[in-house]
Amino acid sequence: TVDGTALWNDILETARFGGTPKGGIRRLTLTEEDRLVRDWFIAACAALGCTVTYDSMGNQFARRPGTDDSLPPITMGSHLDTQPTGGKFDGIVGVLGGLAVLRALHATGHETRHPIELINWTNEEGARFAPAMLSSGVFAGVFTEQEALDKTDRTGIRFEDALVGIGYRGTEPCGQHPVAAYFELHIEQGPILEAENRTIGVVTGVQGMRWYEVTLTGRDSHAGSTPMTMRADALLAAARMIEAVNEVALAHGPDAVGTVGLIENRPNSRNVVPGEVFFTIDLRDPDDAVVERMEAAFRDRATAIAAECGMQMVLERVWDSPAVHFDPACIDAVRGAAGSFGYPARDIVSGAGHDAAYMARITPTTMIFVPCAGGLSHNEAESAESADVTAGANVLLRAVLEADAR
Amino acid sequence: TVDGTALWNDILETARFGGTPKGGIRRLTLTEEDRLVRDWFIAACAALGCTVTYDSMGNQFARRPGTDDSLPPITMGSHLDTQPTGGKFDGIVGVLGGLAVLRALHATGHETRHPIELINWTNEEGARFAPAMLSSGVFAGVFTEQEALDKTDRTGIRFEDALVGIGYRGTEPCGQHPVAAYFELHIEQGPILEAENRTIGVVTGVQGMRWYEVTLTGRDSHAGSTPMTMRADALLAAARMIEAVNEVALAHGPDAVGTVGLIENRPNSRNVVPGEVFFTIDLRDPDDAVVERMEAAFRDRATAIAAECGMQMVLERVWDSPAVHFDPACIDAVRGAAGSFGYPARDIVSGAGHDAAYMARITPTTMIFVPCAGGLSHNEAESAESADVTAGANVLLRAVLEADAR
Ligand SMILES: NC(=O)NCCC(=O)O
Ligand SMILES: NC(=O)NCCC(=O)O
């Protein structure tokens, strides 16, 4: 089993890189805070005898040799980047839980057949550079490296420039790294495990998700002297579309969700009727066909709203990550490991996207969930119990060893 | 009469300070661009033999002596600051039209009894520091100087620091400057004069206007794993309130207007259900009682929406500028001047706020409007005809001379 105290200490220690007054973390990818936690990651893994490298997308790999080093590594991983006002657990538990596994192997001198690698993926959140899971996506061949390097944040900074800026653009081409399997430990980020008093979620897959960008162009005009009937108010049109996203999600059943998370209003001045609005949409459902129907329903609604408000509309789908089904053998390994420890467990589908969703395209993959308080995530108050995190890392350890033995 | 060509050249020449690719101006108050146009103003007025001073709010005064210099000055003025994406005429026509009057007096050596002063008011737009007409407000005793100096822009910079930063914090205390009358030339910023083919608007007053700030606090959560029923989505609540502002304005008659011009969404990330939104509201009507009823109606709607969306709401009225009625003698002077030139004219109430609205509290005041294309303002495409601007400046000249003769 892993050292739960050391794992918890690692969580608290790394939380200072971008720590916020409210107890959360602001560690957007490829910022100075990200560089600091990456440096910490190298030191921590090196202290356990691992070799740490990084590839051309900045993904970090900490390698513990196997007895047969010609075999591809069994990998574990997640991400150390956060949302602008993120918590201390999202992604972090997976990386530091993997570190706890390496520490347990190191402490006992346990030899594995395969090398074991721990991966810290770049830009999982998609908060700075859309879409999410960008670098595991390149690794898995979903995106080309060039399109990823050319992504820009909302201030226009290129991914590549930011990556070079923090000194983490490696020479190993992203994707040319063999892997035998991939396991990812993560907080659930939803309410189910806690509500049912389960310690472990055996993750069978990830729901389908799509992202959209909408630009509405109306006409800037004076808020005082422009009659209501002569306006082309882009923010009013956006408000109607935000309501439409909500209605479309509610209309498509119990699991469907729809969110407008980001909005930019122009010129954003108190006495100017807004002439241009940019906003994003996130639609998800475990069933890709439902996502497809939601998109169609929203497109109809948006077209009608744009017409009634006198808007030019550009509505673009910028990301499509279909539903993922994880590897049955890996799922069994996790289920078995949870059972062997006697942890209460249940199968679960992930509502959030994860690097595992892309890794599943190229290698046997699954995930392990642990509960978080109130199902709250992407929030500075995100919280998890040390005992649950330890349990998750124990399951990770045993699942990895089982995969190694296969 | 004024030199219309010189006036038009001044408009084009000053448009380069903050000029935008789309032909508009971005010259937010107390920025480097504002400093440059203020320096230009001093040089231009000095070339006409005027003495230029500025007070503790940065208001600039260009003084042409009268034959009886113990008399308080007849004043003209407007502002040289713009919206973030403003036009070349809003405010500018009033300052440069006043300059054209000074030039005409200078060229003919015409002597006036009173000194004649041209004023460039600081922060009329209210785009950087709310509310609008801040410095004429201090001048007229509506706001204390200290509260004005302590205002902050949306990035937290204090008014006083910005004023000192561009070198325009004067030693003359704002408001201790005697005035005998105030005339302001401005583009209409609305559609009426153009639609009726009138060259001159004889402005009888300014409608009532109020500004509000709303902060909604819900709960940040994960866009993928938070069921629709467990959300406290601050942007969805804001969207409903934006719709409510629109409905309230439409329900309160032909003249009422209501606008949400500025919105800030937090954390503003694609995959986070927004936990906090800040937005502003602008409500106006020529009848203060209607504004009052709109406020009450919106408060009811907002309270209900906040409850249904699980929001904490802080709704604050941050500005109240009641309807203004200008001085009958000044209005007559403008009407008479327009008639003497044979310009087609009509009485009109201003939909926009102007420094004249505050000057009317302390001195006989009125305004002169000229048409602008399509009634469009607070837009980079704002446009006015040279002939109309010249006509407005001619009326300004004659009204000032009549006030001097009174
Ligand atoms: N785990 C996680 O929060 N990932 C971000 C990608 C998503 O939006 O689901
Ligand atoms: N003239 C003008 O646009 N002033 C800004 C103040 C207002 O919002 O009416």
Automatic annotation (TrEMBL), chains A, B:
Species of the source: Gluconacetobacter tumulisoli
Cofactor(s) for this UniProt protein: Zn(2+)
Positions annotated to bind Zn(2+) 2: D90, E125, H378
Keyword Hydrolase: yes
Name the UniProt record assigns to this protein: M20 family metallo-hydrolase
Region described as Disordered: spans on this chain: 64-83
Family affiliation: Belongs to the peptidase M20 family.
Entries under Gene3D superfamilies matching the protein: 3.30.70.360, Zn peptidases
Statement: the UniProt record of this protein carries the keyword Glycoprotein: no
Pfam families: M20_dimer, Peptidase_M20
Superkingdom of the source species: Bacteria
Species lineage: Bacteria, Pseudomonadati, Pseudomonadota, Alphaproteobacteria, Acetobacterales
InterPro entries in alphabetical order: Amidase_Cbmase (IPR010158), Bact_exopeptidase_dim_dom (IPR036264), Peptidase_M20 (IPR002933), Peptidase_M20_dimer (IPR011650)
Cofactor remark: Binds 2 Zn(2+) ions per subunit.
Keywords in alphabetical order: Hydrolase, Metal-binding, Zinc
Residues engaged in binding Zn(2+) 1: H79, D90, H186
Domain Peptidase M20 dimerisation: 205-306
A GO term for molecular function: hydrolase activity, acting on carbon-nitrogen (but not peptide) bonds, in linear amidines
